[in-house]
Amino acid sequence: MDMIWDGIKQAFVLLFHGDSQVLQIAWLSLLVSGAATLISLFIGIPLGSVLGLTRFWGRRFVVSLVNTGMGLPPVVVGLVVSMFLWRNGPFGILHLMYTPYAMVIAQFIIALPIVVGFTMAATQSLDPKLRLQITSLGASRWQLGWILLKEAKLPLLAAIMAGFGAVISEVGASMMVGGNIMGQTRVLTTDIVGENSKGEFAYAIALSVILLILVYVVNLVLTMVQQRHKAK
Asked: Per the structure, how many domains does the chain have?
């Protein structure tokens, strides 16, 4: 218990004293995971809307792939991305391995099925009569999709929270494609693993507390937005 309390106290000391190294690591964690989540939203919301609102041959197969992807092990993603980005891989010429860009790619792949799955569920849960009513008023296909997405905005905020939560907390893929390089690719999760392996448990606990605070603050903001729209 003493070690846990020491770690918690050390976390607040690092935060309030503005430790440059910790702030840099925390900022990179937020930047990488935020970018991956944002890209997954731009691609995942349209894909999820199509799966939720349309019927086509092979849809069940695609949906099963999405559902499987929602539980995709990060280490498997890291392995696949590493093979593609390694110097002898198809995209090795881009020299993205062991860079934040590689971490964004890996985390995007992790977040995408989650966003698609949540969006698909959100659009499917809408009242079918609403779609008929909007269509009867002369709305185009694009207008129909936009209005339905606006109606499903509360579940879509949950998709953002789930996608961000999945990538900000993962460690396997980030470690494999980023390498945990100090000042370049070290994020909170990989640093926690590194400190734990060195036996620096108090510092690892401190970083864990900072990570939890970061995740809580982001989700608190999104929850406030969600509940404000719900109240209206």
From this structure: 1
